[in-house]
Amino acid sequence: MTTATRRNSSKTGNDLESDPDRIRTIRRELSIEYTHNERDNIMESSFKDFKASRGSVKGTSGASDDIPTVLAMQLALVEGPDRLPADEGTQEVLCRKLCVLEADLSGVMTLISELSAHFVSINSGERTIFITFKTLEEIWKFSTYHRMGFLGQCMENLLMDQEFWLNSLDQQSGIEISIKEETLNLMYKGFLMQEGSFFGCCTANQMFDSSTSGSDLYLEKGDIALFEPPFLGSGWTVLSLADGSRGTKQKPALEPVIPFHEWFLKSCPETVLVGGGKDTSDIPFQIALGVCETIEEHDADGPDELSFQAGERIIILGLLVACFEWFMGKSEKTGDIGLVKTNLVKATSSFCESSDIFLKDEDRQIITLDQDKIKEETISLLKKICQCDVGTNYKLDLTKEIPRSVQNKTQEVNNLKQKVNRILSKVDENQRNEDSSVSIKHQMEKEANDTEESREPPRFSVCSEQDSTSPDGHHAFLSFLSSRDHQPEFMLLYSAYPEFLISHFEGHSDEEDIVVYLGIARELARKKRVSWAQSRICFLLGQLCAGRSKFSQARVYYEEALNVPRDCFTDMFLLSAIYSNLALIYLTQKNHEKFFTLSERLSALLMAVPDCLFGCEDPEVLKYVLKKAILAKNQRAEARACFILAKLHLKLKEGMSAIPFIERLLTLADEVPEACDETLSHAFLVLARLYSDQSLPRLAESCARRASLQVGATASHCLCGVLLLMENASELYGVAVPTQVAPYLTRAIALVSPGEDPALGHVHALCLSWLFHRHSMPERAVRYMLTVLDHRNMSSVGQPDTTAALIWMAWLYICNQQPGTALEVLDAVLSSLPEHCTTQLEGVVYNMRAISYRHSADIRQAAESYRAAIEICEEFEDRHNWAIALANCGFMCLQIKANRLAEEYLTQSVELFSELEDEGHELSFISVLLELGRHFISQGKHENGKIYYEWALLTAMYIDHVDSQLQATRHLCQLYEEVCPDEAQCIIYNEHQLNLLQRIGDKSLEGEILEKISQLYLNLATEKANRAALDYTKRSLGIFIDLGRKRKQAHAWLQAGKIYHILQQTELVDLYVQVAQDMALSTGDTLFTLEMLETAGDVFFNSSQDREKAICFYRDRALPIAVKTSSVRSQLRLCNKLSELLLQLGQCSEAIEYTQTALDISVSLADHLNERVAFHRLATLYHCLGQFEMAEHHFLKALSLCPSPLQYDEEALYYVRVYQTLGDIIFYDVKDPFDAAGYYHLALAAAMDLGNKRSQLELCTRLATIYHNFLMDRELSLFFYQRARAFANDLHIRRINLAPDYSFRTTNKYKNTITGATR
Question: What pTM did the predictor assign?
Answer without folding.
Answer: 0.82
